[in-house]
Amino acid sequence: MAPKARKNRSPPSDPDGIFSGMVVFLVDNDVQRRRLEIWKQKLGQMGAIIEEEKLSQNVTHVFAVNSDSLRKKFGQKQLQRFKGIILPYQWLEDSLHLGKKVNEESYTIHLDSSQNPLKNSSNENSIKPTDVKESSDNQLHPHKKLKSSPKTSEGSSSEMKDKSLDEKVSAPDASLPYHPPDLNRDITEIFGKLINIYRALGDDRRSFSYYKAIPVIERLPFKIESVDQVKHLPAIGKSMQDHINEIVTTGKLSKLEHFESDEKVRTISLFGEVWGIGPATALKLYEKGHRSLEDLKSDDTLTKSQCLGLKYFDDIKTRIPRDEVQEMECLLQKAGEDVLPGVNVVCGGSFRRGKASCGDMDIVITHPDGKSHVGFLPKYVNHLKDMKFLREDLVFSIHSEQGTDSGVDTYFGLCTYPGRELRHRIDLKVYPKEIYPFGLIAWTGNDVLNRRLRILAESKGFRLDDTGLFPATQGSGGKRVSASTSLKFNSEKEVFEFLGFPWLEPHERNI
After folding, report:
1. In this predicted model, what pLDDT tens digit does every residue of 141-153 receive, in sequence order?
2. Of the residues 99, 229, 350, 472, which has the maximum number of CB atoms within 10 A of its CB?
């Protein structure tokens, strides 16, 4: 039975919640105040009693960023006397996401034997993780390997058990790792292919079901070896369980193999690779009898943009060497300065992530004065056309002057490397300075990272997209309603830190 609440404790909102019976103390060292308040609120709503003032004998659980934050808060003798469990905030994040308490033994914080201020058993090595498996450095990405430097930041849940927590495992400025390494890429990659196939077939319901399942599986701190491990997870129904069972048993999925050998699926997927042709249009073209790209050339229902996508299909599919992208980024920056001195032009996407080649160019633009970006894009596009760099237009929309869509101006088109006729896809996005960090994050990617950041934001009561981070509340009928004004941040790093995601340099975001 939980001890009675005293004056310095916050009583639980739901005494039967998933954290009922827990009396918790939250170590505030190295934690942002706003994040701490969110955790307190969630714990209290779900049955925990919050001990606000001191580490009393009634406390059953202490949450901290890492061992360093513990040492800052408590002395060695006080930690030695504590008989409860000390957990990283990651345990709380994962429990909230799954809707149930996850295995504490896979997260418990231990200090090294030389310090030895805390042990939850007589032998530090007696508590073994039951689910978390060893993984390669690649699997541990995006969390960096632990180093002895005090500036080392990222660590995974499994690393916490194998490395001394005398070393830091929090992100810079005490941001908390949000998720364990993706140990189940074999499953998520297959599900990703099924998303695209069902999307191409126009089956949004099934496509969305796999889309919801992927982040649940990505967040697991263990390698799935039996379907019994996922039977009670959200978004993993009976059909999804059967797929997972087949994958972990055979290493493949017969459903995917059937789709990949099916003429209709292959044809619709091919049509969907033409720029401007979406799943619904691709299906209609197939139903009209078209079976090849050559067939599409005679279809008079295609829009101008779709015709351009078809005409330059092979060009657009040709990847661009990194050195050429770098030269074009310099060209774009210089052209921008010609139109508006001081403008900031950055090539995002796989180029900013350090890849050797790029499928297209994602250009993110702003001006540091916060106002000169208005009206810049039309002048910039005209200048680039005069230079014979931009060749064909696909989409051109101006919002900064009307004040809509957060004032983001957009141009999608085709360009050529100087002296060549080979077309490349290029996107220009002009952001107001105040939301520029969100544009950089979104257009740098990759997709996995962006999805994880969005889900993390949702778990904290926000909506994240390329135009901002918006507080969200429950409206009438249980629908989530987002505020119209975003929180303000000066850099990508500040956004990562606020969300509690370990800071990743652009070249570290290929996860």
Report:
1. 333 322 223 333 3
2. 350
Q: Which helix (H) or strand (E) holds 470?
A: strand 468-474
Enter the pTM of the model: 0.60
Tell me the per-residue pLDDT of 303-322, one tens digit each, with 9 for 90 and over: 999 999 999 999 999 999 99
**Mean pLDDT, rounded, of the chain:** 80
* Residue that is written with structure tokens 């149930």 in the block: 100
Residue spans of alpha helices (H) in 46-156: 67-73, 76-81, 89-98, 137-140
**Among the listed residues 382, 34, 71, 306, the one whose alpha carbon sits nearest the alpha carbon of residue 175:** 34
The CA distance from 157 to 178, in Å, is 10
- 428's enclosing H/E stretch is strand 423-430
Task: Give pLDDT, residue 11.
Answer: 54
- Quote the pLDDT of residue 284: 92
Task: Please identify which of the residues 243, 290, 367, 373 carries the catalytic annotation.
Answer: 243
Burial of 300 (0-12, 13-18, 19+ CB in 10 A): exposed
Neighbours of 296 (CB within 10 A): 23
- Beta-carbon count within 10 A of 311 CB: 16
Residue 9, beta-bridge partner list: 51
**pLDDT tens-digit map of 219-271:** 787 889 999 999 888 889 999 999 999 999 999 999 999 999 999 999 998 99
